[in-house]
Amino acid sequence: MKFMLTMLHLVAVLVPAVADTNPHDGYFFWLPAGHLTVGDKASEARFQYKVAGDRASFTIKPRAMRFGAAKGQFVLVPRGGNSSWLYTIDGKDAGSTGAVTFLPLELTEGKQECRIEISVHPGQLHGFRLYYTDDFLKLGGPIHFGSRDGLTGDYTEGLSSLLVRGDFSGAEKRFRQGSEKAKTPEAARLLRRLARWASAESKFKEIKTGPGFYDLGLYCMVNGCWELAASCFRRATELMPKNPDAWYMLADALSYRDSDLLMDMEKIYPYYKKAADLYPHDKSNTYRNFVALFRKLREKEGDKERVLTISDEQIAYSKKMWEWCSAILAASSHGALRMVNTFHVYDKEFDNRGEYDPRPFEGLFKPGTTEAFVKMTGWGASDTLGHDCGPDRSAALNLGIREWDVFYHEWNHSLDWLMITSELGIGVPETHSSDWCGFEPISSMGMGHHSCNRYYMTPGMYRMIRGSDPPTTPHIDTWEVSGPTTLLPETDKPDDAFQSRLKDFRDQVVANRLTLGPARAVTATNGYLDFKSMWPGMSLNALAMASCYVYSPVHQRVRMWMGYDDNAVVFLNGQKVFGGLYWTLVRFQESREKDRVATGITLEKGWNHLEICVTNGQHGEDWLEPGKRSDVWGLSVRFCDLFNRGVSGLKWQAEKPVSDSAKPRPYFEPSNPVHYRWSDVAYDYTALLPHLTETDIGALLGLSFKASDQMWFITDKSSITAGPPNPSQIKFDNVLNWFFSPKENAAYVSTRNFDGRNWTTRELLFLRPEAYESYLKLMRVTPEAKGKGIKSHADRVIGYLTVPRSDSLNGRIVLVVDTYLGDKLPLDEEDLLDISHLK
């Protein structure tokens, strides 16, 4: 538990190319593997293209994504028409090429590269489009292009129409015919997906506007048509050159199409940079990195010592990587959070023999000026510790010369520390779970991370989080205090019981919040409310509560800095706004640190009632400290705006005001739910929408409702899927397959209820974050839905639901839409989307 909260992590290791097993095996779709263009020197060099007499040869490699190359089959589509040439693979006869050539699996499977040699007359070969696909797995056997009848005929004729003849309507027709003949759900779904690809190609030729191309690009991203997605977003940027979303999505599409692994990012980075520059700067929060580049860093491993060094070339490379990461963060956050990188090169030797000891690096910067201290030299290590571990209130990164996405990975650990501990990051998964974020299969580890930043973190979250700041506003000095209460007996088990004790404390905080006995007014000393001095004889494992009333002249969102030992739960106007996920640890533990964590709260206009329960827990030996500090038990709170400035008109007092207190925003009312427009709340929806419970949803549906940690929605009335979620179960239903493919973006639960006079239908749609924009924009409003007064599904949002998960400490999240999809639902969720209206 301690290591989770302090964010000590080693970077995940990439699975080797063409591994024995791969999470994406059987679940990827027509990955582009490059275009060989004869006459283009760069293309010829990439494929090692050579001509000798009447023979041309080139090298191909399976398309690698995040986990290397899944099991697949190469497909060659010649440029310039249907030609038949004899060819070999690594010197072995492979037959002849055709309009669409599936390379024999027995000659390519498991290889990290293959050499193709073709017998061709000079000037006849213009090149190939190369794909890597797993259709043979879905169709149940080798693919042959000889047949024109049955499923195989529909499939091969559809491909010829799609890839060679450009007859997209004909291709769609053949694929849909084939889907009706398929003998397995996987084969039928493949054919339906190919039909959507053909349909999107047809639509691309009709569209004339930037918004039309952008929305078609979203449709292509959902369906995995990466080449067409890139073309759509390219056209969108040409027609809307000042639209940052179009530039960001172009960069993403190119990452999927061409790869962003290793130095491939160099070609794509300018598009992320363009988006970053176009997003607004006026309300951007900053994340300040102090990057210390050490020419001499003494390290000890066992009994041996060595001095690590860094070269000028490595320093230049590191700065380039941080430049890329900075642009990617700014773009993925919609400009709401921007890195500020300060580079310092140190020639003198520093002592790093205590690898995680921050003391040799104290004083390199002023406390409050840095979110992350990045310790860099020419080694290969990479790990991260949270903001209670580094020098002068910073997070600490040990980072060597690595790939760009390792830089981003380690930095993102310090960001998710802030998201988790501030509890602003509702629904935000821990960094090592980013492989499940984004359109799948993700192109790289870095794509997973900034997809998490894009889809799971909101501008509202970004603008509130803060790692470190100097105290510039006054701390609350007048409180009403009640307590104390003993929660648990003392224990001689320090750390092995930490996690269970954390849960017990938080549960009992809530249970004891209103049963702490009489209260008394107390004045804080220098802004710190010292419970230890109030009750010096009180044992450990105790709780006390402090409360006050805060007046705000307007409804506003403010940043609240808190210091507490050892844990705190915060209530505002009767609602819990901070649950105490973070226990003070390491350098902040027992330190009376006032501003240890910042969160965001919404003050209503008028007097707001603030209540904070503080526990004093028993810990083991302090980590990274030579001895054990004396026990501390206390609290501090101050408010500021997004830029650490005072908030005009705020005042506070311990006694209850004469005037009525502010009311919290309305609770969810199942009998009359409020419908929100997504465009009004998207930027900060976890603060602006109701946080729904299973009880809320059950009351709305009129049944018993349960959500599992896999987003499997269980009811007592609906005819739904039974048993645990099955990855091969891919139809649109009450199960939302979240993790390794086939990913799903949507699920629904529909009920009919009779009130004694009339039947009513209630249908709830659950969307995962990647689907918010594409589905709410493109979902078809059926005539039946229009008959119920529904004009747009995006105007029917009622809140969000979270379920507990170990990799998402603030809950895994779905958006809840109260709508009606139609009398007949599609088999595939992607068929909810409509592109017919795009212009």
What does the model show?
The protein is α+β, with helices and mostly antiparallel strands and 839 residues long. Helix content is 28%, strand content 26%. It has 22 helices and 36 strands. Strand 35 (797-805) and strand 36 form a beta hairpin. The longest helix is centred in the first third of the chain and has 22 residues, at 185-206.
Average pLDDT works out at 88
- Amino-to-carboxy terminus distance: 53 Å
In helices, the fraction of residues equals 25-40%
Number of helices: 22
What does this entry show, briefly?
The chain is of the alpha+beta class and 839 residues long. The protein has 22 helices and 36 strands.
Show the helix and strand layout.
Blueprint: H1 2-6, E1 9-10, E2 31-37, H2 41-46, E3 50-52, E4 55-60, E5 73-78, E6 86-89, E7 92-96, E8 101-102, H3 105-108, E9 114-119, E10 127-133, H4 135-139, H5 150-165, H6 168-181, H7 185-206, H8 210-223, H9 226-239, H10 244-258, H11 265-278, E11 285-294, E12 297-301, E13 304-308, H12 312-332, E14 337-346, E15 350-351, E16 372-376, E17 382-385, E18 395-399, H13 404-422, H14 445-455, H15 459-464, E19 478-486, H16 498-512, E20 519-523, E21 529-530, H17 531-534, E22 542-552, E23 556-565, E24 567-572, E25 575-578, E26 597-603, E27 606-616, E28 634-640, E29 651-653, H18 678-681, H19 685-688, E30 691-692, H20 694-701, E31 705-707, E32 713-715, E33 746-754, E34 759-767, H21 772-778, H22 783-787, E35 797-805, E36 808-819
Parallel strand pairs: 11-14, 11-16, 12-15, 16-18, 30-35
Antiparallel strand pairs: 1-17, 2-10, 3-4, 4-9, 5-8, 5-10, 6-7, 6-9, 12-13, 17-18, 19-20, 19-22, 21-28, 22-27, 22-29, 23-26, 23-28, 24-25, 24-27, 31-32, 33-34, 34-36, 35-36
